[in-house]
Amino acid sequence: MARMKFLCDADRCIECNACVTACKNENEVPWGINRRRVVTINDGKPGERSISVACMHCSDAPCIAVCPVDTIYNTEEGIVLHSKDLCIGCGYCFYSCPFGAPQFPQVGNFGTRGKMDKCTFCAGGPENNNSDVEFKKYGRNRMAEGKLPLCAEMCSTKALLAGDGDVVSNIYRERVVMRGFGAGAWGWGRAYQGQGS
Amino acid sequence: MLRRILRLPSPGGFSGLIVFALAAALFLGLGPVGLQAQQGGNVPGAAPGYNYEFWRAVRNGVQGNVSIPDKKAGVLVQSEGDNWRAVRNGPVSVIGGWALLGIIILLALFFLLRGRIRIDRGRGKRKITRFNALERGAHWLTAVSFLVLAFSGLNILYGRYVLKPLLGPELFASLSLLGKYLHIYLSFAFMTGLVLIFILWVKDNFPNRHDLEWIAEGGGLFTKGSHPPARKFNFGQKIIFWAVVLGGISISLSGLSLMFPFELPMFAKTFAVLNMLGLSLPSELSPVVEMQLAQIWHAIVALILIVIMIAHIYIGSIGMEGAFDAMGSGEVDENWAKEHHSVWVSEMKKKGAAKMKKAPAE
Q1: Of A141, B13, B88, B332, which residue is least crowded by CB atoms under 10 Å?
Q2: CB-based contact A147:A153 (threshold 8 Å)
Q3: pLDDT of B7-16, one tens digit each?
């Protein structure tokens, strides 16, 4: 079974935010939630770099380790999904996540957190594939349709790659060899620790 | 359950109270995990043109720009989360679990060896008013809310290992959600009770000379017939009082910090004050580290308070004959009062305020 991964080529990302928009539109993400974001470091200065980041679907996912109700789980393809039925909105996944992926709409009294929302690698949730319920809670299940996440599919410079980790890393390796430089697969050491390919 | 906990990385063994030191030290960013970010993976990590300094800064949580309203999202990586996870799932869970088990075993042993502490002279004919309705109300407001807070809090730490296998994931999650709401709302009852008991009892809880005698005799806990003198509260009760007041204030503050995420950061300011005393703690903390510290501190103080309260509940119920009446009806047996609070009884008599009542006819 392929191990799904994201890779953002920091030498290619031009901070167009198309991935952010594509994600919001495709998954009808609630107001105030950004499953994907583009971070620009040294903005407007020499050496500026942008990186598109969302849930990296870690191998040893910290969110899974700390969730008090075991609502987050790994699929066979290494995608980290969660059940909004079980989530109690405690916020622990956010405290543990290195990439700031989990987010919470404020719905309760005193602004208590609602159900956690995060990138699903366009793979929906535990409900039946492509059901209405699944779409409302988690957005599109493109994986079940045989498609990859829309953020990467729409990336204008192909900076953001998504899919089978081996294929993605081969594309990137060829790229680095061809052009002779590369910032490395950002976040991979942290998220995948060399495992799960 | 333990296997699951122990499997996780533990940063420094499980010995005793170093948790506090660990929690502080680990959050300085000294943790081992964040440094390996660019190693591993199946792609070239350091091709020509690779800027080590730049990517090291990113790994260490440098703040970039984002075009979304949440500017906190400008941090690409926060590695402190790994330390928080290691401390929470490691020492806090493990030591906390042993402490809870330990106090129960200790009390069971005490009960087996010492038995129930009886009123030596037997029950007397008269009763003395020890706590009026307001005092008892304040006590039970704090006590009942504390119990709900304690159980719902323990559920967050241990429920997935203990309750989930029994109830199944759905029922367990619903119960935990209910627990979360109770935890949030009843915290205000707890804080109200805390303020009340502080106002009502602080005057009786300052140390005095009788405390030395009490300590010397071990509170009379370990010797039959030993009854060191005490005023309204003996030294043991004073410890409970100050643990509840100080621990309660601390846990309330960290709880409020957790309840209003990112709005009430307190640790950077606390560290700044501690630094004036010669410590060198970080006085600038990112919002998420503030939340992590608040959660860890909240859990540690809660576990300590729960352990203390288990002992308090024991001695106030099955551990000692006549003790429960003080908080039950508020009327205690005169012989019990003379044995455990001799100075207080004579003070009440002197003032003429001792409302002696005849016990109801059998």
Answers
A1: B13
A2: yes
A3: 444 443 334 3
